[in-house]
């Protein structure tokens, strides 16, 4: 993975932008990622690496955390959640696949969970398509293309306090690691 410099203040704004004193909603975050993904100059400015994901931090609405992320062919996040943050993301270029769990997991005190058979969800998000999600949303995002980069825009509020990473074998979900902001800044 490589980290690109911050492009603070480069995200588009509008009259409907959330004020600094209001906590942005999932709808506000989705609106922000849509507007940001439509900024062709910003999207084209992201350096792409054939080996690993690249990212640039953006200023999100209302104090949210936002990222522009480049996905080389065949890369993904692995299973994770964003703890107490709500979020939204949108594919700006290419196509991303999201696998998610339609289940509310306990937030603490477990290492292994057996999932029921009906919790798996899959979405394919082509350029211009996105989604928002609530707290403790467990998912993985993948660029399954064998030869094309994808680029996406993500926003979270409050700014990510942590990311919990999981492994999955069949119905067994295992908590593997908890990352804090200093691990990816």
Describe the structure.
- This protein has two helices and 13 strands.
- The protein is mainly beta and 185 residues long.
- The protein has one domain (17-183): Jelly Rolls (Sandwich), CATH 2.60.120.10.
- Helix content is 10%, strand content 40%.
- Mean pLDDT is 89; it is low at 1-20.
- It has helices at residues 26-37, 40-45; strands at residues 2-3, 54-59, 65-71, 79-81, 86-93, 95-101, 112-114, 120-126, 130-133, 139-142, 150-157, 163-169, 172-179.
- A six-stranded mixed beta sheet has the order 1-2-3-11-5-9, covered by helices on one side. Strands 4-12-13-7 form a four-stranded antiparallel beta sheet, with no helix packed on it.
- The protein is globular and about 45 Å long.
- The longest helix is centred in the first third of the chain and has 12 residues, at 26-37.
CATH class: Mainly Beta
* Secondary structure: helix percent: under 10%
Order of helices and strands: EHHEEEEEEEEEEEE
Mean pLDDT: 89
Distance N to C terminus: 12 Å
Q: Low-confidence runs (pLDDT<50, min 5 residues)?
A: 1-20
Strand content: 35-45%
Number of strands: 13
The CATH topology, please? Answer: Jelly Rolls
Shape: globular
Summing up helix and strand content along with how strands pair, one would put the structural category as mainly beta
Level-2 CATH architecture: Sandwich
**What does the largest sheet look like?**
6 strands, mixed
**Separate helix tally:** 2
CATH superfamily: Jelly Rolls
């Amino acid at each position: 993975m490589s980290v690109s410099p911050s492009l603070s203040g480069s995200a588009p704004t509008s009259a409907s932008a959330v004020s600094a004193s209001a906590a942005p909603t999932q709808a506000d975050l989705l609106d922000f990622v849509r507007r940001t993904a439509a900024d062709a100059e910003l999207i084209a400015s992201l350096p792409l690496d054939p080996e690993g994901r690249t990212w640039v931090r953006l200023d999100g609405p209302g104090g949210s955390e936002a990222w522009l992320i480049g996905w080389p062919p065949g890369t993904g996040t692995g299973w994770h959640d964003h703890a107490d943050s709500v979020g939204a993301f949108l594919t700006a270029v290419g196509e991303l696949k999201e696998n998610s769990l339609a289940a509310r997991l306990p937030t603490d005190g477990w290492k292994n969970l057996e999932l029921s058979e009906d919790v798996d969800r899959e979405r394919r998000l082509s350029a211009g398509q996105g989604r928002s999600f609530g707290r403790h949303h467990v998912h993985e995002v993948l660029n399954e293309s064998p030869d094309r980069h994808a680029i996406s825009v993500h926003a979270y509020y409050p700014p990510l306090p942590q990311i919990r990473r999981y492994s999955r074998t069949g119905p067994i979900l295992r908590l593997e690691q908890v990352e804090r902001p200093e691990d990816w800044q």
